[in-house]
Amino acid sequence: MHKHRDDWGLGDLADFVSADWGPKIFGFKVGGHSRHRRRGPMFESGEVKFVILRLLKEKPRHGYDIIKALEERLAGCYTPSAGTVYPTLQLLEDQGYVRVVEEEGKKVYHITPAGEEFLAQNRDAIDDIFDRVRDTVRDYAGGPMGELHQAFARVAAQTYKRAWRYGPGHPAVPRIVEILKRTATEIEKEWEKAS
Predict the structure, then answer these.
(1) Is there a single domain that holds both residue 38 and residue 127?
(2) Do 73 and 59 touch, CB atoms closer than 8 A?
């Protein structure tokens, strides 16, 4: 995996969570709500501008690149919508914190000296944001949740890796299907008991 100079404090956890067999396997994404502990949005109102400016301080980027960089930096736990990123970029441009340069038909956003000064002036708030985000990701992907992710990843890897190799006609496939059905039923019962 390509490592960044600044992993935003997630370290090896970012590698695990964003790995192919991490918790975003088969389109599932980390996040959502729990009956026992409600999870709010990754960022509070107005905080995304700080995160975007921090990305632009590293290097100029176009909007889609910002979306993908945020998803990667936050280990797949958060993907901002275009409806969040582009209006924020427009706001930052209106405030003079970013400037736009047309490159090969795309708008590329560059942080301005005023944007860098704004980041410096708000360093404590930005540190608080990143501490909270880091704790949220670690809480969800570490400890028992990390064990759950690893166990699921192992089942998925053992199931699909060999199924692709041997093909649908292999005699183990129907038996594995039955094992997985029984396992899914047991998991459903366990969740029902817990609630």
Answers:
(1) yes
(2) no
